[in-house]
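Illustration: ferredoxin--NADP(+) reductase.
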Amino acid sequence: MTTLPDEKFFRTPVTDVRTWVPGKLFSLRVERQPGFDFTAGQFARLGLQDPATPEEAPTLWRAYSMVSGASDPYLEFYSVVVPEGQFSPRLAALQPGDMLCIDRTPFGFLTADRLHQNGDLWLIGTGTGLGPYLSILKEQSVWQAFDRIIVVHGVRHADELAYRDTLSNLADQAPWCDWGVAGNDRFLYLPIATREALPGMPQERLTTLIENGDLARLADSPLDPQRARVMLCGNPDMITQARKMLSERGFAPGRRGAQGNLAVENYW
Ligand SMILES: Cc1cc2nc3c(=O)[nH]c(=O)nc-3n(C[C@H](O)[C@H](O)[C@H](O)COP(=O)(O)OP(=O)(O)OC[C@H]3O[C@@H](n4cnc5c(N)ncnc54)[C@H](O)[C@@H]3O)c2cc1C
Ligand SMILES: NC(=O)c1ccc[n+]([C@@H]2O[C@H](COP(=O)([O-])OP(=O)(O)OC[C@H]3O[C@@H](n4cnc5c(N)ncnc54)[C@H](OP(=O)(O)O)[C@@H]3O)[C@@H](O)[C@H]2O)c1
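Result:
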């Protein structure tokens, strides 16, 4: 890891690469620089240098949520490959030992402290929008604040249910079937695929499940603003639609330092 005091970013080596779906989904870990502190749910700006001019600052930067916990000794990111994208195919090509640049300042407001600190915490995400929730789930304070945590992960196909072992381990008090609901008194994991049937699960978009009440039925918990604190992350169209439905039920983000019951992060 190298850094110059006047640089707004640090360079750090990739230590691990994991392929979840070849050519589409991967995660990578890098060494964490002391002093890079963040709140679970925030994102970093990652930069890739031009291999022809490795001494120069990156000109290409993209936002990536931290998947690793705020106290983990490493940083982990979870990424899709957009085949025509400028950044993600190059990120996907990194191997252990290659260098990644990271802006020293973490960003973002998809953090649990923006929400009322009681009731049920719903972590609803599509695709790579699961990432920040994995970081949030590592926070002890979150488990202390909320009665129950419900993770809803919407993907196109079953193989895109990344980190499902991590999530099933959190739910290990409960019977666990290959793809279906897993849960215990404090935690529930709802994997939802839209382009493939998962045994026992609806094959529907998350917005449909919110609107028709099936999500609340699956969780056996009402999606009402008195009790539910909701995060939405991932596909911006999903977020626009879900946000509208939830607003009509009385959900609203916090304002001017006051906590709310809705927090959102668009990925593009
Ligand atoms: C706050 C924030 C946090 C983000 N965190 C992550 C993250 O943790 N992991 C991650 O993979 N991406 C994340 N993104 C998106 C990321 O910054 C890049 O846009 C993405 O990696 C693609 O970069 P690109 O240059 O290859 O393509 P871009 O030119 O940036 O994107 C091209 C198109 O690809 C699609 N697209 C972009 N990102 C995604 C995605 N994540 N899933 C599905 N389709 C997508 C959209 O249609 C977009 O218009 C985040 C974005 C924001 C704003
Ligand atoms: N490298 C490759 O081979 C490859 C292959 C495929 C995709 N990709 C890249 O990956 C990107 C897609 O990633 P992704 O599948 O994680 O993201 P996505 O298109 O956002 O889909 C994730 C989930 O969100 C759902 N969704 C989409 N729009 C919604 C809306 N308005 N309301 C509610 N739910 C909605 C999808 O349902 P639906 O199924 O109903 O849309 C799906 O279940 C593509 O843009 C492409 O760049 C790469």
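Reading the tokens back as a structure: The pocket of flavin-adenine dinucleotide (ligand 1) is lined by residues 43, 62-65, 77-80, 82, 85-88, 108, 127-128, 131, 265, 267-268 (CB under 6 Å).
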